[in-house]
Amino acid sequence: MKAKVFDAKFDSGKFVGDMVDWSSARRLNLVSKRVNVDFPAWVVESLDSQARHLGVTRQALIRLWIAERLGRAQGEAERNWQLIVIECTVSEIVSNADLSVK
After folding, report:
1. CB 51 within 8 Å of CB 58
2. In whole angstroms, how large is the CA radius of gyration of the chain?
3. Is 70 exposed, middle or buried (0-12, 13-18, 19+ CB in 10 A)?
4. What predicted TM-score, i.e. pTM, was given to this entire model?
C-alpha cells in the first residue's frame, strides 16, 4: 500500500492498525543511556523528600523534572524561532515598502 493511500485512510478516521507490521515496530529515542551526576547532599535530600511526597522514586522524579524542563526549553526555542521568522518577515515588508509621503 502506498503511503498516500494509508494516510488518506487514517485521515478519514478508518482503523489502520491491521495494515501495520507491528513485529518490526519500534519507538524512536527511547533507548536508555546511563549517566552519572553528582549532587550536593542537600539536593539529594530535597529530591528524596519531594519523591516521597509524590510517591515516586528519586530517579523517576529526576527523569520527570528533566523531561519537563527540556519540553519547556523546546517550546521556548520553537517560539523564539517563530518570532525570528516574524521579525524577518516584518523587516522585509518594511524595507520593500514605499514609505514616501505623497
Report:
1. yes
2. 25
3. exposed
4. 0.49
